[in-house]
Amino acid sequence: MQYVSTRATSASASRNPQQFSDILLGGLAPDGGLYLPQEYPQVTGAELDAWRRLSYAELAYEILRKFATDIPDADLKALTAKTYTEQVYCNARGDESAAEITPLRTLEQSAGKTLILQALSNGPTLAFKDMAMQLLGNLFEYALAKNNDELNIFGATSGDTGSAAEYAMRGKRGIRVFMLSPHKKMSAFQTAQMFSLQDPNIFNIAVEGVFDDCQDMVKAVSNDLSFKARHKIGTVNSINWARVVAQVVYYFRGYLKATTSNDQKVSFTVPSGNFGNICAGHISRMMGLPIDKLVVATNENDVLDEFFRTGVYRVRKSAETFHTSSPSMDISKASNFERFVYDLVGRDADRVHALFRKVETHGGFDLSGAPGSDGDEFRLVGQYGFQSGKSTHVDRLDTIRMVADDYGIVIDTHTADGIKVAREHMAEGVPMIVLETALAAKFNETILEAIGTDAERPAGFGSIEELPQKFVVMPADVARMKAYIAEHTGL
Ligand SMILES: *Cc1c(COP(=O)(O)O)cnc(C)c1O
């Protein structure tokens, strides 16, 4: 299996075929594009039948080996077996469903309509990013050990991503994590989750500023190419290909658990921000998984909903990006969207290059086919199963209340956006699976506002704010940051 950049010309693609291991530790392709397989591996009906009997870890192995063809099977099997265990994914439930890794729960079944919740938040940080990040930690450690190399992950977080990365990389040989976060701006729970880690390879840096200041520091350090090379700096952002592939597994799992035969179809609704999660759904569908609809659910930051309703992709400025009660979906542009656009325009890398250059110069592009637009491929969106919808703060409160009253469970704010939109796209005879992306305990303030009581905390998280914390406070000063990294990498 070889990988190409969404912006590669055919000449450069054939000169630079990349293997899975080549792109594992990186982010963007050198031409600024994103990596995708040259073609999507196909899954047969016989395979799907056989996969119905597998554990989650075994299924992950079967799917990953189609993409990571340059990693020996035995190694891949060991890596997936080590990652997808009941011990790693037991936090949220701790009951008999923990062995399922992503257990399904039917919320409603009436008049031929079925609404199912698939839990993706059983990992150590109680959000779906653990599904892929835990595997990434093991893959990174494996790849670095093979080359006797090391890696210093440098990133900025406003909450979920940073903690998922730290819990995936803690204690891993050859890896250090330097994570910037805005000082005193995260919730007490999120802060405690990150800062209570005492592992010597985890460095939490609280920056005196806002999230954008943290991100600017990451950019400044990454743009210093000689510093970056000397200190072996890398990232784990949502465009990482291995993260996307790891997410493909739970679409297959959800389908196999919600159906009994391969002539049945299901739809998925996905609370979306950077388009990473639902991009894995698109890839699953392209591989032949019988998915009917892929429904993109956004919050007030509706860049993606706007595109899937109108064909116009219009990124927002920082000032137009709302801070909402589903904060992990507060994005101004969707970093993985380019992967879908590549397929939508018939894998024409020159078109993709031109369209995303227009994003930089004009803030977006228009594929609606209207006079003066950049193309008419919007007419093809339906062929890929995509639909969309939007949810607001009031919708979230209503949905959290309704789900608590009707089904007796308390869902988080992002999942509430998903359920709200899913209910607008239900079809008779096609089960609708909503991906649950976080646990309510992480966003307690809004839960309190919706139902007047606290969200239940999973066992072991009861007094997380009381644990000793390890972090340093630093001004938003790039030179200080570089000195700190140099001192602690010893490179
Ligand atoms: C990251 C995140 C999302 C958005 O996922 P994308 O892959 O960026 O679309 C949704 N919900 C939660 C809880 C998240 O942490």
Automatic annotation (TrEMBL):
The modification N6-(pyridoxal phosphate)lysine is found at residue 129. Keywords: Lyase, Pyridoxal phosphate. Residues 2-84 form the Threonine synthase N-terminal domain. Signal peptide: none annotated. GO terms for molecular function: threonine synthase activity. Residues 101-352 form the Tryptophan synthase beta chain-like PALP domain. The keyword ATP-binding does not apply. Belongs to the threonine synthase family. This is Threonine synthase. It comes from Massilia horti.
